[in-house]
Design a protein that fits this description.
Elements lengths: L1 H19 L3 H19 L6 E11 L11 E4 L4 E7 L4 E6 L4 E6 L8 E6 L2 E6 L4 E5 L5 E6 L3 E2 L2 E5 L7 E4 L2 E9 L11 E5 L4 E6 L13 H5 L2 E4 L4 E5 L6 E5 L4 E5 L24 H10 L2 E8 L4 E7 L19 E6 L5 E7 L10 E2 L4 E4 L11 E10 L1
Antiparallel strand pairs: 1-26, 2-3, 3-4, 4-5, 6-7, 7-8, 8-9, 10-11, 11-13, 12-13, 13-14, 14-15, 16-17, 17-18, 18-19, 20-21, 21-22, 22-23, 24-25, 25-26
Helix pairs in contact: 1-2
């Protein structure tokens, strides 16, 4: 944008110089002063951010968000939240601006487990264990198919799609989050990211690993293993690991990593949390079931392309049981959003009380943040509700 304005100013000043016979040196001086003003103005940094609850969107379906792999799609006409209902073979599309819902029924007999919805003409049906991908449209017509070889160097990989950032289509490259399994080895020992080209039907790259602090004998269970990533450019991918204080910048060109230290959350006293186990296979069922309830984690990192900011979702520690001796869970947990500028300088951290929202699905839209209410909120089966938070910056 800055370069375009610069070129426009050059053309304008050249026209003025020729029209009014102004010496070239004077014209260049004017240009220099204008550009200095632009640069100084453009260097203004955001110093405060506040998320303010605004409009609530409500739809009859789906009734629950559950653990569906929910997606947000936005263009100049609408903001849509996509709910794949795998058990019902449906895709529910809630349009926020138009306040309408649409349902696509998948009638294909293809062997699949999860969806990746681009639009009504491009719906990917994916089998994460066998690596089969089928592209269909809303009329259930098969457009194309792919078979990703998931056994590589004797390691069996599984496609792991939990959040929207886990699968990204850029041109013909499909970025897939994966994990590997081989004998007694744990997933920490294998690559976690893959680029598959849909045109050549080949794996372009298998890369990236968990940080060294993650190991077979130092395990944080699923809560600490579900990482998120941001594909910042054709070369750079940024990774957030829940039990790792830094974030990691990976260069696709150089196959190199760089740790970026971030400000610590003011709501986390001790970090990283105690590991799941040195020998997790010997743990009792009760411990396995309750481990994730009370530990703090940096759950995900989100990029706001509209404001050039980064948001880090923080899950706070909490007691294992409440005052009535019932187990707490993710719904009862307090949480916060840490805000960083584009250079990862800390700006602020805003607290959110538990028992209301589901921060697992936090979406960035032009209007602000959109976060669904948790299924347990008020224990009323009202259907799907989303909270819009407008973002005030200074």
């Amino acid at each position: 944008m800055f370069q375009q304005v610069q070129e426009y100013l050059m053309q304008l000043l050249k026209f003025i110089s020729n029209k009014f016979k102004i010496p070239e040196g004077a014209t260049l001086s004017c240009l220099f002063l204008l550009l200095c003003g632009m640069i100084l103005g453009g260097e203004k940094k955001i110093t405060s951010v506040q998320f303010m609850p605004a409009k609530v969107y409500q739809f009859q379906s789906p009734k629950y968000i559950g653990r569906d792999r929910v997606f947000l799609l936005e263009d100049e006409n609408d903001t849509q939240i996509i709910h794949p209902q795998v058990d019902n073979n449906q895709i529910i599309i809630n349009s926020l601006k138009n306040n309408t819902s649409d349902t696509i029924s998948i009638k294909s007999n293809l062997f699949w487990e999860i969806y990746y919805y681009i639009n009504k003409d491009s719906i990917f049906l994916i089998n994460r264990h066998y690596g089969t991908i089928h592209l269909i449209n809303s009329s259930n017509e098969l457009i194309d198919s792919w078979q990703i070889p998931l056994v590589i160097d004797s390691v069996r990989y599984v496609i792991d799609i939990t959040r929207q950032c886990d699968i990204v289509l850029k041109n013909s490259d499909l970025y897939l989050k994966v994990y590997g399994v081989k004998g007694q080895d744990y997933i920490y020992n294998f690559n976690i990211d893959m680029i598959y080209n849909l045109k050549s039907k080949k794996i372009i790259k298998l890369f990236m690993n968990y940080p060294n602090t993650y190991s077979t004998t130092h395990n944080w269970s699923n809560s600490g293993s579900i990482f998120t990533r941001i594909i910042k450019s054709d070369d750079e991918i940024i990774y957030n690991f829940p039990a790792f204080e830094d974030i990691i910048l990976y260069s696709l060109k150089n196959n190199s990593t760089k740790n970026i230290k971030l400000q610590k959350s003011k709501y986390i006293e001790e970090f990283p949390p105690p590991c799941f186990a040195n020998n997790w296979k010997e743990l009792g069922t009760e411990y396995k079931r309750t481990y994730w309830i009370d530990k703090p984690f940096y759950k995900q990192l989100i990029y706001d392309k509209y404001r050039n900011l980064f948001y880090r979702i923080v899950s706070h520690a909490q007691p294992l049981r409440d005052s009535l001796n019932n187990y707490n869970d993710d719904f009862t947990r307090n949480w916060s959003i840490m805000v960083f500028d584009d250079s990862f300088n800390y700006i602020t951290e805003q607290f959110f009380q538990g028992r209301k929202y589901n921060p697992f699905y936090t979406f960035v839209a032009k209007e602000g943040l959109i976060i669904p209410f948790d299924d347990q909120y008020e224990k009323k089966n009202k259907g799907m509700m989303y909270q819009l938070f407008t973002i005030k910056t200074n």
